[in-house]
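Progress against Task 2.4 (sequence-to-structure conversion) is shown through the following example record, which the project officer requested during the mid-term review.
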Amino acid sequence: MIQANNPSLKSWVEVPAGSDFPIQNIPFGVFKTGNLTPRVGTRIGDFVLDLKTLYVLGYLDNLPFDLEDFDTDSLNPMMKKGKAATRDLRNRISKLLATDHNDLSGNEHHVGQVLIEADAVEMLMPVQVGDYTDFYSSRDHATNVGTMFRDPNNALLPNWLWIPVGYHGRSSSIIVSGESIHRPKGQIRPDKDADPIYAPCRLLDFELEMAFVTFDGKPLGDSISTAEAEDYIFGMCLFNDWSARDIQTWEYVPLGPFLAKNFASSISPWIVTMDALEPFKLDGPKQDPKVLSYLEYEGQHHYDINLEVAITPENGEETVICNSNYKHMYWNMAQQLAHHTVNGCNINCGDMMASGTISGPEENSYGSMLELSWRGTKPIPMKDGSERKFIQDNDTVTMRGTCMNGDVKIGFGEVATKVLPAK
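Structure tokens generated for the chain above:
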């Protein structure tokens, strides 16, 4: 067992019951305050631990890190040190926060310097994302979409059960939770018998996804196997793949999504490490037909992560509209990364790969408004008496994710984004 995952560990920092951030989590993110420049931190309960100051005070000695790895506006320099180094860092932080070690807790002056109330910090984009890939790996989602738009008896395209389908997206428009977006504009064709028009999107949608972030991969020309894949994955975050459905319908043939997707994608600010997620692994679905050899894998590579989506109208009350789980994915991360690199494509530190919409088998587990409202034919009731077919101006969409194993719960926090009217 990884030392920091010990379920019996307790922290001398008070952690409220039900917190996403007990001592068994120790995620990584980037923050700033009115007095502090951007730097790397971790989260424990309702506090952020300042790793730059922790390093300056000598608590991270004998680890392969430099001050510049924490005195920075992204996790990339820290991730450049690789899997073993970041595992050792997480174990060291765990030890410093544990009740049975007083190296840090015994120095009240230092505690006051390194622990900051979470409400007092501004969370920033945690990763400088070089390249972004979006997969399409939920069988329930792909079946629902195929049923809506094609032949229900042949909902999945012929390649879907053979390869983890994906496409390269736009990394520059990935934003962190709390940053608002404007309703996108583009070409839509509301009347199939008339020419398209230029207008704001009328069918704005979220897509409930998760994303993983990579360490440096192998050189160009080499492949990463499913057995090696998790050695190249640093951690995961929540991911909202915003989608303009009407723009997408008109543009996606023949090359797939373009303006319907590249206007914004939102992520949660804390990256939960794959090490922290180790206790929540489980078996995946039976894959039939049998996958080709490079996609075969051994062991457990799926994860039990409960997910929910809520909509909050402006000045209104939140309504939870979706409860799903990451375990419903057909293709796992190891297979996605193996497929991505099988042709020799190189992976760089900070690359982000999203899962594709996470839909389960039940109607309330569908991961998009397209499915939940079934193309607008089944409006979703809100607590204020209104209804939603798609996302309206001034709505805030919030996604949350948590894992539970015995008495240990860890979470991702949330990704919340408000939709402003088109400019």
